[in-house]
Design a protein that fits this description.
Blueprint (H helix, E strand, L loop, with lengths): L1 E6 L11 H6 L1 H14 L3 H7 L2 H4 L2 H21 L4 H4 L2 E4 L3 H8 L5 H17 L6 E7 L3 H11 L5 E8 L2 E7 H13 L4 E4 L12 H12 L10 E2 L6 E2 L2 H13 L4 H10 L2 E7 L4 H9 L4 E5 L2 H14 L2
Parallel strand pairs: 1-2, 1-9, 9-10
Antiparallel strand pairs: 3-5, 3-6, 4-5, 7-8
Helix pairs in contact: 2-5, 2-8, 5-7, 5-8, 8-11, 9-10, 11-12
């Protein structure tokens, strides 16, 4: 029996997340202060009090979600948890992979905050507003959605961005191509093909300028081998070498988040519990839909700390 720690991605943010943590635990407050100092601004004020439209900006949401996850990690660590003892692996959904690597000691909190600010700004700037789009395709298998993207490609770049599992996939690319692929998916029997209210076509080939920016940014930060392997988004397999992980983080900007395969890898390799650390319960819900043999835990606020630690202790007993 083994436990893996997972970390949420963009979309899990909400105004007020982490505020009760910061008020209850000095270790959590210190994380938010460190992120504020690294970014040279009071991101914590936006996280705790909004406005929502400012928090949801990609350049803010990404370091904000990491800050909440790391605040939880520091609170848990202050109560005796050690990532290398409690978890066999870490993984995170898109930006959550950075949170996972920070929790596993590859990056400092300050460097992770700066990397995610660069990443958010670069992803936003890669494609002029209105040119790109993303759509959620519900109720089709990956091969059918890939076939729909092949049809949509007559109108420009479009590809599968996220394979989230449970029949939920996301496609991304130029708006006319995404619309055409969504229509093709509907014709193939998708239950829903829903255009998403996003500001850029994330995890598509159109993000290449952002990938280039991250290659440069990642080259300039200190890296330490993570204390446990990360299951990389674009590989859905464990990686431990810091330089290889950094290269995969660059690839991740334009590549597919293979979350269904990540959970399947866990289930096939002795991981019985996925512990989601951060805002919300999105990954816990996805894991339940992908493989019911895997138990989901999550910790997002002060009232979750003691039950979480007790559950982890039981798992490792």
């Amino acid at each position: 029996m083994a436990t893996a720690f997972t970390f949420p991605g963009q979309g899990s943010q909400s105004v007020g997340m982490g505020k009760d943590l910061a008020e209850a635990f000095p270790e959590a407050r210190a994380v938010f202060d460190e992120v504020d100092e690294a970014l040279g601004e009071k991101l914590s004020a936006v996280i705790f009090d909004g406005p929502e439209e400012t928090l949801t900006l990609t350049a803010n949401a990404q370091p904000a979600l990491m800050a909440v996850s790391m605040a939880l990690i520091r609170v848990l660590e202050a109560r005796g948890l050690r990532v290398e003892q409690a978890a066999s692996h870490v993984a995170g959904h898109s930006l959550g992979e950075y949170s996972a690597l920070c929790a596993a000691g590859m990056f400092s909190i300050a460097d992770t905050a700066r990397l995610l600010r660069i990443r958010g700004n670069a992803m936003q700037a890669a494609v002029p507003a209105g040119e790109g789009a993303m759509a959620a395709i519900i109720g089709l298998e990956l091969a059918d959605v890939e076939a729909a993207c092949a049809e949509g490609a007559a109108h420009g770049a479009v590809q599968v961005a996220n394979d989230n599992g449970g029949g939920q996939l996301v496609i991304s690319g130029l708006k006319p191509a995404v619309e055409a692929a969504a229509a093709a998916a509907t014709a193939k029997g998708a239950k829903r093909a829903l255009m998403l209210p996003v500001s850029a076509p994330f995890h598509s080939s159109l993000m290449q300028p952002a990938a280039d920016a991250m290659r440069e940014a990642l080259a300039g930060v200190d890296k330490t081998a993570p204390v446990v392997p990360v299951i990389a988004n674009v590989r859905a397999a464990p990686v431990s070498d810091p330089d290889e992980i950094a290269a995969l983080l660059v690839e991740q900007v334009t590549g597919q988040v293979r979350w269904r395969e990540t959970v399947a890898w866990f289930a096939a390799n002795g991981v019985t519990t996925l512990a989601e650390i951060g805002a919300g319960k999105v990954l816990t819900g996805l894991a339940r839909r992908i493989d019911r043999s895997v138990t989901g835990l999550n910790v997002s606020g002060p009232s979750d700390i003691d039950p979480f630690l007790a559950a982890i202790a039981d798992q490792n007993a």
